[in-house]
Amino acid sequence: MNLFFEKFNINSEGFDEFNFFQGDPIITWNYFINQIVKRKKYDYPLKPPLTIGHLIKVAEKEEWFEPE
Q: For residue 15, which of 8, 28, 46, 64 is within the disulfide window of CB 3.0 to 4.6 Å?
């Protein structure tokens, strides 16, 4: 996303990547045990889609705004 903002000279103020992309899991001993031994699956919250159409509108406007 940083390359997109730089290439099209977009003001990225207000953009939070964790609104659209899942962060890395925090690896703890319990996480390791649940994944390897118990084969427990984690349900991550659904994120809203970041569409190409919205990115085109952002590039035209040259500033970030939240999708509708």
A: 64
Tens digit of each residue's pLDDT (9 = 90 or more) over 14-62: 999 989 988 777 778 887 787 777 777 777 788 889 999 999 999 999 9
CA 65 to chain centre: 15
Nearest to 40 by CA among 48, 31, 49: 31
Opening angle at CA 23, ends 56 and 28, nearest 5: 175
How far is the C-alpha of 68 from the C-alpha of 61, rounded, in Å? Answer: 15
Q: Given the structure tokens 């349900």, which residue do they identify?
A: 43
